[in-house]
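Everyone, describe these structure tokens:
***
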Amino acid sequence: MLAGALAAPVARGAGTPDFTRLRRYRADAQVLILSIPILHRSGVGGGSVLWRESHEAADTVRRLEFTGYSIPERAAGLNRLGFIRETSCRGERAILESDYFGVMTASPEESAEEAHKALHSTAAEATYTAIEGRIAGTDIETASAHFMGPARLSPKRRDELLTRAQQALSHAPRKPPEFHAQGAVPPPFLHALAQALCTPGESRTRYVYSGRLYRLWLRQSADAKAAAYFRERGVIAGGAQVLRVTGKVRREAGGKDTDFRLWIEEGAAQPVPLRIDFQPKSYLRLVMEAQA
């Protein structure tokens, strides 16, 4: 229901796209204590990934979106949403300009005990965080804002959430980057990840998010078991192979590593993940599985 719900019109490439892939996911959750799984629940939420490309003269406009959300009835009443959209204009050799926009439910819980207190909330509104940014050459600007929005979303209220996010951002000050740009600035996260996924073997790159510079590492390896699994479920064609991608990100100015894993179809020109495995909190692991 929420997949693509927050999508706004693309600034460029408004005509018929040359390529569009929308993949939907079921989200499963594991609750961890001291890194040991103590509870597993399937179908606590869902999500989607959109990859769309169109051409204008010699440039390519690429739009990437990620949406993840909980289903309160399956997630013990917990209502969470995360959405990020990035659009870039690419020349023959590099990205010329990028912009991004995101909305997510503010979730300050840092422990399983704090998360338990947030369950079964009856509040009509929740706190959200909105962010937007633009990268063009060596120019970077970003803005973020907190705002109140509907705690439970529906097709009728998704536009309301988007409008509130844009209103909050319109009053937010534009902030300069927290680093000194030397040469062309790296792209935002989804575009950096997409490019790295198209690079076989191991890759290292950087990306910019919220005016901060991050490093991204990926390592790809064949996974025959996953290939058989996704072929059997009809997610990929017979004979297709699958790569397991082990990833890590870290803020360049300092901070701890954040690990994640993806599974993609080998040789895909637009490698939209088949599975996404990450741990957003120390006590919570989420696995998003592609649906046939």
Q: What stands out?
A: Residues 3 and 39 are 27 Å apart (CA to CA). The longest helix spans residues 155-170. The chain is about 15% helix and 50% strand. The chain has one domain: 19-290.
